[in-house]
Batch of 2 targets.
Target 1
Amino acid sequence: MIVFGWIMFSEEDAERRKAIDEFGFVTAFPHRSIQIKQEYETRIARAEHQIDIMGFGLNALREDFSEKFQEWANRAEVRVLLVDPHSPHPEHSFTSLRDREERNNARKTDDEIRRFIEETRHLWSDPSIRFYLRLATTLPSVNMFRIDDESFWGPYLIMSGKSGRASRNLPTMIVKRPGYMYERLADHFEEIWSNDDLSSSPERSDVQHGT
């Protein structure tokens, strides 16, 4: 019976390990942003090729790391996708919907996006610096921070209760390459980034000036 039980549980563990390996799962956290800042910093310090970031206004990223953006771009190509504050319609945008979901002040996310654009203008407007910025017009579904062969990612969910509704309180997972989830996230980002129907340059005057 002992041997039978050992074999049975070993087979179950083997299936779990196989699924973990196939999806490239590394670990998970109940939060993102400042709560796991050290996890980002450790990987960014080793970055050599690619840093891809996608989110709504990425306010916490700007506050925590803006002084490091130039340094990042010296070591890797940095691409940032923010949500277009006028998509799909200026009066009924994804950002205004998210503000209502998180019980933010009106236009809070719009202001964060414009602040990010303006504070990084000296980077993305300089062709000699490998820091690039685009505005996504697609329905936001995940927050993503890819650093070479690993990606932090998490879904956008509506939260309730005293824990707060801010995106930073949502779960974050890390997946690696090779792995099914890593590849799908990379494809998702690349399709939005490279398709002019799904993203655009921040040079648009209506976004910059809040019209």
Target 2
Amino acid sequence: MAGLRSRVVLLSTLALILAAALPPTAGAATIRRTWTASISGVGVPGSPSSGAVQLVRYWAGNGAFSARLTGLLPAARYAVSVYTGTCSRPTLVARLPDLATDANGTAGSTSAVTGAAIAPIWRTAADRSIALRIQAGADVRCAQLTSPVATRVAVPRLGIDLPVVLQRGNAFPWCNVAMYLAPLSQPGEAGVTFLYAHARTGMFLPLLDASRVGGGGRLVGMLVNVWTSDDHLYTYRVTRVLPHRYALPDLGSLTGQQVWLQTSEGPYGTTNKLMVVAQLVSVTAASHAAAHPRARPVACGLYG
């Protein structure tokens, strides 16, 4: 069990350190995460509605909420909340600024959201689905709030190509997939996207093997492809290879979008890790099929 504890402790430490690290160029208005939702359908009063809402969290911890909706009750004030559970039986996460409609039932506004309101949303969204609920009297509309996440990672020159899934809690990392740490950035957001997988055949073993030849120099310049759930392909170029790491280097120098790939170096029971750092070079559209590989994670025990 010592090996399991060491892996869990390191992963938890990485999440805490990276979540607290801000690039020096990140100002108060730098976006940390954007959630969106589409409102459509017919509410209780029978009026068709349509439009979209956006909830933003900035690096500083505060945020903003904007909405462009039609087909709501005229001259009404809608209470807005973020919740988990079901629309009819919601569990409140946080309240957002009210929405006011005009005489035509149209709402269009942008409001500041305090850090106190954003904080529980950020924590909750790390490991479960969140949704938006607006209500004025008997008229209730709900929609899921989503943000893009990494779904696939590939290093073509090494033959690496894996689905990416969320690491939940302190579970031992699965096999046959790579995983991301939810407290960190996703592709398209400022900061670090952190992906990791076991050093096993079919996973990140080729990274480890390449790092052991000439100090890992041949890895520098290789392309890393990361697909996201909103059908985009982010291409990065490897700039640094960091072997034998027991703790993260100084992250104060981070100024742009990066992906970090991590795998264990062994032997079993040790906490030393290989980290490969790559900088964003391009973003392109991707097919839905390419961005949504079928993930088949398996529990693979404590060894390897």
